[in-house]
Amino acid sequence: MHKALFLDRDGIVNIDKGYVYKWEDIIWIEEIFQMIKLANERGYKVIVLTNQSGIDRGMYTHEDVHTLHQKMHAFLAGKNLKVDDWFYCAEMDSELRKPRPGMLILARDKHDIDLTQSFMIGDKPSDVFETDGKFVGPSTLLVEGNYDLKDAHTKERVKVFKDHAKILEELKKVL
Fold first, then answer.
1. Within a 10 A sphere around the Cβ of 85, how many other Cβ atoms?
2. Residues at site: Contributes to substrate recognition (predicted)?
3. What is the pTM of this model?
4. Residue 60 in 3-state DSSP?
5. Catalytic residue flag (residue 8)
6. Which single residue of 11, 49, 55, 100 has CA 20 to 30 Å from 94?
7. Binding residues for Zn(2+)
């Protein structure tokens, strides 16, 4: 089985400007390049998991998201950084929508991933996957700043960090 570094998109890979779906609106978070490089070097799959409710709200289309992800993927590949897959959920009421584990389970099954040896990087409470006695998700590293995380640190297998640089420091220790 493989280990994976799961990444939320808006707020982790790029700055969250609210319903980002155009290439010209992507502003990369500088530390993401080092995070992906570290994961690649240490043999982790890198997989983006993102809620994209703007589709369900009629703000943009599935094709817009596919096109953006293709451009982001190509840009990263041009920097010799490998993202193994991109998953998104468009529907507000779906088992795939984070914090429900649907996207995570799809990624796990497609890429043969051991979730207990994997990590999720996010910036909001919905990036902490719902778990129960039978399902254990990845350890989650959250960055402060975009959303209220006051209760997040009380959840099992969740750590909260001041900024992306602190998460990168942690990844150097745990990956």
1. 17
2. 97
3. 0.95
4. coil
5. yes
6. 11
7. 89
pLDDT in tens, 32-86: 999 999 999 999 999 999 999 999 999 999 999 999 999 999 999 999 999 999 9
Domain assignment present for 68: yes
CA 154 – CA 1 distance, rounded (Å)? 29
Among the listed residues 10, 64, 84, 85, the single catalytic one is: 10
Helix (H, G, I), strand (E, B), or coil: what is residue 53?
coil
- Residue 132 annotated to the active site: no
Give the integer Cα–Cα distance in Å for 93 and 154: 26
CATH number at residue 66: 3.40.50.1000
Q: Which residue has the tokens 């890198």?
A: 46
Domain that holds residue 132: 8-174
For 38-110, strand residue ranges (E) read 45-51, 85-89
Number of domains comprising the chain: 1
Give the annotated binding-site residues for Mg(2+): 8, 10, 123-124
Task: Say if 3 falls within a structural domain.
Answer: no
